[in-house]
Amino acid sequence: MTMERKFWEEEIETMSRPNLEKLQVERLKKTVEIAMGSKFYAPIFKERGITPESIRSVEDIRRFPFTTKNDLRSTYPFGIASVPLQKVVRLHSSSGTTGNPTVILHTKKDIDEWANAMARSMFATGLRDTDIIQNTSGYGMFTGGLGIQYAAERLGALTVPAAAGNSLRQFKFIQDFGTTALHCIPSYATRLATVFREQGVDPRDTTVTRMIIGAEPHSEAQRKRIEEIWGCKAYNNFGMSEMCGPGVAIECEEQNGMHIWEDNYIVEIVDPVTLEPVPEGELGELVLTTLNREAMPLFRYRTRDLTRFLPGDCPCGRTHRRLQRFQGRSDDMMIVRGVNIFPIQIEKILMQFSELASDFLIILETSEDNDNMTVQVELAKATDDFKLLENLKREITHRLKDEILMTPKVQLVGKGVIPQSDGKAVRVKDLRNNH
Ligand code: ADP
Ligand code: ZN
């Protein structure tokens, strides 16, 4: 009898901390050597006396300056490249919702390592080569398309590159091919479920047993909801174009925090203001250094994502540290009447009401020099029971107030009223005078 394989790469995934750190140091040296070919990093290294030989421990990471999205913008498109363009085989560009787009370059080896990291991630969620994996992400500049495609093929699964949108086609493919796993952004998981119901099929009756959800912040409550409506397990997956794409960190079958692949990244969590490391376990900004990339290694990249390390060992046996579900990005934070609020706090409350659907929009406005917040949320089922609606509104307002310490105006709207975006969900519309 053969023993069932538990890991994609057992040695690396279960490596002891000292060995993992040794590997990180080795790879950091190598990465510095590669980045000496970068017009952007070479002068910085020179000024700070950073050479491969001078790297002795992981602590040496603090000798490097931070790299920011602005650095990527000001060197757009190829200014950070560490290798000649001849060695580069692909580029991805981020959506650039906030200013110039940014470009990330990949060599053949980068693509290969990326596919492996995401295949390892899929394996950790229980996906196997017997699965039929349907990818609902756009196949283009968005890394969720090709990134997942290459990884699922590496895993050996049967892949269905359905791409984004066209929900009726997604519906047909799932039924015809017996899709067992979906990759989608959380807001699309709920939207697709609605399409199933409109077609008279309960999503719970499909062959889908696993889902990889990521690319946008979502609460534990939303995950639970997705699992419930689909009758499946949903695993939180974190990636970002600058680090490769999906395949940076993922939840294992324990579903308790995302293992971040520390053979590929040095992971720091810093105070976004002082930029000093936060005490172990506290919330801060995730800062990542790539250890296994050639075309465009990045040192101490400020992700803007807010998270913390979870304490203790994971029962799955993987030794790579776990990150808590993201609170959001530091740039998502709304300051309303001086109070710091994240959209995910509002989502968390709304998801607790089964009377509500999953789409919502936070509208901020100024009236009489004051910030006002309206939370629009779609009802799961249309009703004209006025009393029921009033009670529901009162209860939602009350619970939101407990969470965000201010009283928003709650508007219950019908399905389809809130505009849907093609990609990641837009949760905030800020119409205030000073914004
Ligand atoms: P863009 O959205 O700019 O095109 P990316 O697709 O690279 O670029 O987006 C990366 C960002 O998406 C991350 O920095 C993070 O804010 C968000 N993100 C990705 N995965 C998750 C996740 N699992 N949970 C919360 N946020 C996520
Ligand atoms: Zn685990």
What attributes does this structure have?
single chain; 435 residues; alpha/beta; eight-stranded mixed β-sheet; four-stranded antiparallel β-sheet; 11 helices; 30% helix; 24% strand; binds adenosine-5'-diphosphate; binds zinc ion
Structural description of this entry:
The protein contains 11 helices and 20 strands. It has 435 residues and is α/β, with parallel strands linked by helices. The strands form 5 sheets. It has an 8-stranded mixed beta sheet with strand order 4-3-5-6-7-8-9-13, with helices on both faces. It has a 4-stranded antiparallel beta sheet with strand order 10-11-12-14. Strand 17 and strand 18 form a beta hairpin. The structure holds adenosine-5'-diphosphate and zinc ion.
**Unreliable stretches, pLDDT < 50, 5 or more residues?**
none
How far apart the termini lie comes to 65 Å
The overall pLDDT average reads 95
Name the shape in a single word.
Answer: globular
* Class from secondary-structure proportions: alpha/beta
Beta-strand residue fraction: 15-25%
Side by side, the strands of the main sheet go 4-3-5-6-7-8-9-13
Helix content: 25-40%
For the secondary structure, the number of strands is 20
What ions, cofactors and ligands are bound?
adenosine-5'-diphosphate, zinc ion
Largest sheet: 8 strands, mixed
Q: Which value, in Å, is the CA radius of gyration?
A: 22 Å
Number of helices: 11
